[in-house]
Design goal:
homodimer, 334 residues, alpha/beta, six-stranded parallel beta sheet, six-stranded mixed beta sheet, 45% helix, DNA-binding
Chain lengths: 334, 334
DNA sequence: AATAAATAGTTAATCGATTAATGCAAAATT
DNA sequence: AATTTTGCATTAATCGATTAACTATTTATT
């Protein structure tokens, strides 16, 4: 059973492939194909269950109608949900999504970007890994359309969709202070990513403004040894001589492990220590108290990313318009 | 800045594209290109940062080196983790993955299958939605390589990678019985999917064998109104006149919502009611007791799926070998 | 010296769809 | 009647890579 191509239809009807192409792509009028023939062609296409070869089309018109989605970790609910919505919006616009996972590793990201370029993706949506600025600069040099999402590089003028990391973290910390905390700890990643650092900065400034900042209350953990690092961070915090009465976690993975660790240590939350988490988790609803958290507007982030990207793709490498888009996250406290 | 193609390199060196192609694809020997020229070509390709056009190659050789991954819900951790590993194995084999989401809906699955076919994917890995047997039969008729994973259709002889749903559910229920439960409830999906029904059957048979089966203890919920349905299911179970002392949940989403609901109702787990969940969840570790659960071998499932699929792709539509692969899930009780 | 074999590279068709350029009737205009 | 316009469809080039078939040159064999 051979594949059905334009040629198959053309042969069946004794016309040229040009006519068939015109008729099937709705250009019968401009292409001056009679309505009668056009209908015959459409019918035959249905009968033969014709399906256009996207590779051939992509090769010819120079667009693959495919978007590369570079994600840090698709098994993380935050990114999974982001991917879900991006895929949804892409589909609406006629794009397919090739998803790749960097596992937060530069070398993997580099390799995967090559793979996506070879596949002629029309654009990229990227959650860049640490220190991957050069890869983004390559994209700029090659004039390839892309949007960074969730994360960005502050000194790079590029399309990006972010949340108000500093503000919402300031606000979250302030909330802890308002609720009576005076010795608030922070657990964050030991790394060099702007969005995470901004969260830390929000925490620091809020405490400084309240006159209760203590750099010793900051604990840093590594992505690759998260569980044990968070355990020791919690251990350190709960064993300080100045008793900690609040903790701010800067990501969802840290939050969940942090809460887990507090429970293991029989800390009474929120009586002994109040907490503030980043991102919602199903897990929180299993606890007898309301866990306050920063809710990221994931669906809007997905929508906006696609919108920016498609606008850029359509501008066709000429007048690339750059937009930095900040969508406010929300503090959920009850 | 024009794209660099084989032609660009050929022109730079004053040779034919055929020679360049041969040299770059490592066929210098068979293609009888001298080592000297071959090296020159490779160097020039590097210098120009040449990247093969996968669309063109795919069109020519009739293989896109792309696999379509049809997933029910990528934001669900189970599927996210599955996708992560599938992508990893695919990458190793030189395949890219186009992920699509069905949201458990037949019409979406149908549409997305068309999209993937048009994109000339070399094969499919599919978690089929309810009642999508006909779509799978289409694939068989078209002789397209595919593997079903997590779910299958019992009366269809197709490649599939499943877990031992019946056995592990029987075992899980038996465990509850051993632990003293005598009136065990079930919360499962009201639907028509074999793998879910098998889990239910495991529960039923275990209870029948113990002589304590009571059909009234079975509650069914809908995917689209999961939270409220689980809430009422729990309500029904805990208000029976014959007091329920155990519950078996058949999926991860039901498990989490079930546990959540039990807590809301101030049920003391495991003293009043013992539970048995399907799939691990971060959430469980926030509870003061160990939540027993069925652990699915996700990574092996991913690996096996890719292995079967690639074997089938390589057999080139001739001798498609069909394998039903069952990987045992594990009961984690401490 | 004549022939065979090995070496090195090119030509041209091909995959399937698109589209600018062109051809050819029939109809309309002068 | 001659010319232009319009309607309808075809021809052929193109996107980029692959590869079977072929050419040309050098080297080896008898």
């Amino acid at each position: 059973m051979k594949r059905v191509s334009l040629k198959t239809i053309a042969e069946q009807l004794g016309v040229s492939t040009a006519t068939v192409s015109l008729a099937l792509s709705g250009k019968a009028k401009e292409g001056r194909v009679s309505e009668e023939l056009s209908n015959k062609i459409v019918d035959m296409a249905k009968e033969l269950n014709y399906m256009p070869n996207t590779l051939a089309k992509g090769l010819r018109i120079g667009k693959s109608k495919t978007i590369g989605l570079v994600i840090a970790d698709i098994s993380n609910v935050f990114f999974g949900t982001l991917a879900l919505h991006i895929q949804e919006y892409a589909e609406k616009e006629g794009y397919a999504i090739i998803i790749v996972n960097t596992n937060e590793r530069f070398d993997k990201m580099e390799k995967l970007m090559q793979l996506l370029k070879a596949r002629q993706v029309d654009g990229f949506i990227i959650t860049p890994t640490e220190n991957s600025k050069e890869l983004i600069e390559d994209l700029i040099a090659e004039k390839l359309p892309f949007v960074l999402v969730d994360r960005s590089f502050p000194d790079l003028e590029v399309n990006s969709v972010l949340i108000n990391n500093y503000d919402i973290s300031y606000k979250s910390t302030e909330k802890l202070i308002q609720q009576g905390c005076r010795n608030i700890g922070l657990i964050t990643y030991k790394q060099n990513q702007f969005h995470i650092n901004e969260r830390g900065r929000g925490y620091v400034e809020a405490l400084k403004d309240a006159g209760i900042f203590n750099p010793e209350n900051i604990e840093e953990v590594c992505y690759d040894s998260l569980k044990s690092d968070v355990d020791s961070a919690i251990y350190n915090l709960i064993n300080k001589k100045d008793k900690i009465d609040g903790i701010f976690f800067t990501t969802n993975s840290i939050s969940i492990n942090g809460v887990k660790s507090l429970i293991k240590n029989n800390i009474n939350v929120p009586k002994e220590i109040q907490i503030m988490c980043f991102d919602e988790s199903e897990a929180f609803y299993l606890l007898p108290y309301m866990v306050p958290f920063v809710k990221q507007p994931i669906e809007q982030m997905a929508e906006k990313s696609m919108e920016l990207l498609i606008a850029n793709i359509k501008m066709d490498k000429v007048n690339i318009e750059i937009k930095q888009c900040i969508i406010d996250a929300e503090l959920i406290i009850e």
